[in-house]
Model the fold of this input.
Amino acid sequence: LGRELQFLVSHTVHHFAMIGGICRALGVALEDDFGVAPSTIRHRVQLESP
Done:
């Protein structure tokens, strides 16, 4: 079950990224991290920390 849920989350983020690209192309304002994986967001935050 855990593996299936992990895949579901990953695939959902992928779809959100595609939707985000379309929305931005149409001029729809979205948060900068829309469609970005949680692990990528955490990594970016760590890079910004001193």
In short: The CA atoms of residues 21 and 27 lie 10 Å apart.
